[in-house]
Amino acid sequence: MAQDASRPASAPRSSLPLLLLLINACVLLYGPVAARATGTGYIIHMDKSAMPRYHSGIPTAATASPNLNSASGLWQAFKFGEGVNIGMINTEVWPESASFHDAGIPPVPSTNSMWRGTCEPGVDFTPSMCNRKLILSERATCTRAWLPPTPA
């Protein structure tokens, strides 16, 4: 059977969806990243020139997609995020914010749908804070700390 070009040879199949979600999150928030499978997990490297992008205002819906090169690169290699549902990725989710209000949002899909996952408890976050807009939460750290050390 041919190896999937978007998956490192030693990548465990069960961890691939979370890795793709994390890579897509890092690409959207910080810029180019690359993942390398190791014996115990993944090492993620980010382009040293990548800078976080911050937007003002309180978005309640995305009206445009990120300007990524669709002809080549990681975005294409990871099948343009196919099968990954991203509502909002933010390491500092504030469920009380107006951007997370769920007025007018239809009910969360049933458990037998494509939606999988749960709202996991975390620092100052309980599953009861989830609603029809924030339907799942999982801690995934994406910071510039992943950059390799600068040579002396």
TrEMBL record:
Domain of life per record: Eukaryota
One GO BP annotation of this record: proteolysis
Tagged with keyword Signal: yes
Gene Ontology molecular function: any one: serine-type endopeptidase activity
Protein's UniProt keywords contain Endoplasmic reticulum: no
Keywords from the UniProt entry: Signal
Cleaved signal peptide residues: 1-35
Matches recorded under PANTHER family: PROPROTEIN CONVERTASE SUBTILISIN/KEXIN (PTHR10795)
Family under the similarity heading: Belongs to the peptidase S8 family.
Protein name from the UniProt record: Uncharacterized protein
